[in-house]
Amino acid sequence: MNDLTECTLLVVDDTAINIEILVEALSSITSDIAVAMDGPSALEIAQESPPDLILLDIMMPGMDGYEVCRRLKADSALRHIPIMFITAMSEIENKTRGFELGAVDYITKPFEVIEVRARVKTHLALQKARQALARQNEILEIKVRERTRELTLTQEVTIESMAALAEHRDPETGGHIQRTKNYVRILAMRLQSNPRFKDILTAAVIDLLYLSAPLHDIGKVGIPDHILLKPGKLTAEEFKEMKKHPVYGRDALRSAVRKLGGQSFLRFAMEIAYSHQEKWDGSGYPEGLKGEEIPVSGRLMALADVYDALISRRVYKPPFTHQQAVEMILQGKGRHFDPAMVDAFMDIQEDFRQIALRFVDFEEEKATLSEPYHPAVP
After folding, report:
1. Shared domain check, 189 and 121
2. Which pTM value belongs to this model?
3. In a domain, 165, yes or no
4. Across 195-204, 307-316, 355-364, which has the greatest mean pLDDT?
5. Residue 378 pLDDT > 60
6. Maximum distance among all alpha carbons in the chain?
7. How far is residue 187's CA from residue 208's CA, in Å, rounded to a whole number?
8. Could you tell me the residue range of the domain that residue 29 belongs to?
9. What CATH number did the domain enclosing 298 receive?
10. CA 9, 13, 19: angle at the middle one, nearest 5?
11. Rounded to a whole number, what is the distance in angstroms from the first to the last CA of the chain?
12. Which run of H or E residues covers position 138?
């Protein structure tokens, strides 16, 4: 039998002689025995210093043992304490009621000392085993949380490293990456209230979309410099080559996804990289996907990417105002963009503007973002 000397007991009985008998019988197991002679005192002692086991008399004046047991089991901090009822009653219905309330055992008066000791030892040993298991579970949960944090950090570092690679070759700025991933997150969060998306856009998925969004243009590392860095308008042949960047992005990420499995955090990055240039009406590229054929991640990124391109300065154009960008997004509803996403965007377009201001790259852009959107009055 395990060492039980550090275990604590609470003996509750309204008769002093019964308490004396039990304390004397159990002192060979542990010396840490508290006593109470009524229900309220028992509850007070249990709350101040929860014991490992309670021996509880049923028939007491005022608050009986059943009520004490009920209150203990109703307290989340005390319900785990095993309770053994003390009773002189042998009727089966009284035992049944006690077990229904959560008692683990009975001892009957007059006491058989050897039996009492054996049953108390058994339940203390079981309680120690439960406590040890609970501690092990706590340790395991801590380790799982630590491992999860490590994996999350690994994901973030991997994505940031890959995004940095693309950023060094792309004429667009790091601000673009910060802005677009935040646009994607707030737009996805807004769409959680839409029945079409609530089962898709869970909190975990939104976190992964936020992490993966910076890789939307990773495929541009495969575009020749004379095209990617060209300061003017692209020729038809050059634009044809530029349109291959979603394919390059998908291919760069696909092998990693295959190795990591279908639930890999890079699955969303691959979806975004490959589908963010598709359009709701099927006129996009690289596959000309239409409507619901386009992954939700790609639809989110499409709107975020276009809005940011509109309000940002480029070598071939000045930044548009927020007002102009919002109006162009509205014009693309049902053509370029999922109509539901445009509706959600309109609800939070001011949040888009604030994100753009927070991560603004140039004073020129800041000036064009200074005025909020004012819808035209019909």
Report:
1. no
2. 0.63
3. no
4. 195-204
5. no
6. 103
7. 14
8. 9-140
9. 1.10.3210.10
10. 65
11. 86
12. helix 113-169
